[in-house]
Amino acid sequence: MTPADLSLTVLHAVRRAVDDGALRVDVPPVVKVERARPGGVGEYASNIALTLARPAGRTALDVAGILRERLRDAPGLRGVEITGPGFLNFTLRREAGAELVRAIREAGSAYGSSTALAGTAPVRFAGPGDLARPGGLGEQSDVGEPSDLSGPGAPAGTARTARTARTARTLRPADLTESRALIVTATVVRLLRGQGADAGFGGDERVHVRPGEYRPEVLGVDAARWALLRPAPQDRPLDGAPLLVQHERNPLFRVRYAHSRVRRLLANAARLGFGPAYETPVDAPELLGLLGDHPRVLLAAARHRAPDRVARHLEATADALLAFQHTVLPLGDEKPSAAHRSRLALAEAAGTVLAGGLSVLGISAPDRI
Fold first, then answer.
1. Which positions ≥6 away from 197 have C-beta within 8 Å?
2. What Å distances lie between residue 315 and 232, 256, 296, 320, CA to CA?
3. Is 96 a residue whose pLDDT tops 90?
4. Residue pair 111/103 in contact by the 8 Å Cβ criterion
């Protein structure tokens, strides 16, 4: 069970409680589920009972008890506990790891996409004269269709066609490669598309970012994009020089290196005569949790127009994978076993998530570094 599945399961419990007459509230469109905080109970938690308590005219503990009764036998849940003033805490069944790995393998790089934001208003570009203005974007520019930005082989922030802008000047392709605003907007369009939104141009929304220059000719495409996308929109772009250093202090290097390590693990396992197959539970709660959170992170990044959330999540996933990788292959005279095949399957799933996340940001995921 992924966090998205758990969110739906809790939402269905709320709906059943309303249908049964146990709760008199409007069913919310979504239930927020988060990783349990350190010292908490279980693996995930939700404050849905506290949210519904006032409109239901009940205490949060009463609402939590009503929902727990409807969650006891939910597939994928091993336990549901109530803590504090009415938080619901969830412990997943051990086979949840197999379900998660299977879901990632089946979806591939599309893992995490959904239709949650279908119908969201389009995002728009600014006129090039407004791009240097701190903190925001100005009037919309008519720069072509969304496919001009994110078609196969097109760099993020670069349009293959450009028409006359409302600023009474013609945009050249070069104008569309030098602004952080355009890089962020292009990435947001890809995020929204992954979430099922009808993302395009011509709407009223503007993505507000601090200005920054896109310098692929100096840093290379990958480092240039990371420098603009990794900071939060209101923060300054990163200094590009440290992003070119192949060292663990460089987060971009760690993310791409973690993906390349997965490719080497798969190749080395093949030479040893085995491949990935999740056959037995793997004790890697941090990595499993991060992979399960990937759909939620993509949705939040699209909803809040914040690609930096994806970058931070990729860093955490890469760090967890690099700490886990040493357990994957047999050591010494050890023979490959179901445990090794399962760990390899989990590592492969992590590599898929890293590659998919980097792709959203318009950054490559090399097989070898």
1. 117, 118, 119, 120, 302
2. 15, 10, 16, 9
3. no
4. yes
Q: How do beta strands 205-206 and 123-124 pair? A: parallel
Our separate counts of H helices and E strands in the chain read 12, 6
Q: How far apart are CA 101 and CA 126, in angstroms?
A: 41
281: which residues sit within 8 A by CB, 6+ positions away?
94, 95, 97, 98, 342
Q: How many CA atoms lie within 13 A of 358 on its CB side?
A: 26
Contact 20, 13 (CB under 8 A): no
At residue 143, what is the residue type? V
- Do domains 3-93 and 245-360 share one topology? The answer is no
Break the chain into its structural domains and give their ranges: 3-93, 123-238, 245-360
Q: What is the pTM of this model?
A: 0.70
Return d(Cα 36, Cα 44) in angstroms, integer.
5
What is 245-360's CATH number, 1.10.405.10, 1.10.443.10, 3.50.50.60, 1.10.730.10?
1.10.730.10
Q: Could you read off the pLDDT of 108-159 as tens digits, one per residue? A: 999 999 887 876 656 655 444 443 333 333 333 322 223 333 333 333 333 3
| Structural tokens at position 258 | 């973690």
Sign of CA dihedral 8, 49, 291, 345: negative
The CATH number of 3-93, from 3.80.30.20, 3.40.140.10, 3.40.50.1820, 3.30.1360.70, is 3.30.1360.70
Ramachandran category for residue 140: left, alpha or beta (phi over 0 → left; psi -120 to 50 → alpha): beta
The side-by-side arrangement of strands in the sheet containing 44-46 is 34-35, 44-46, 87-92, 77-83
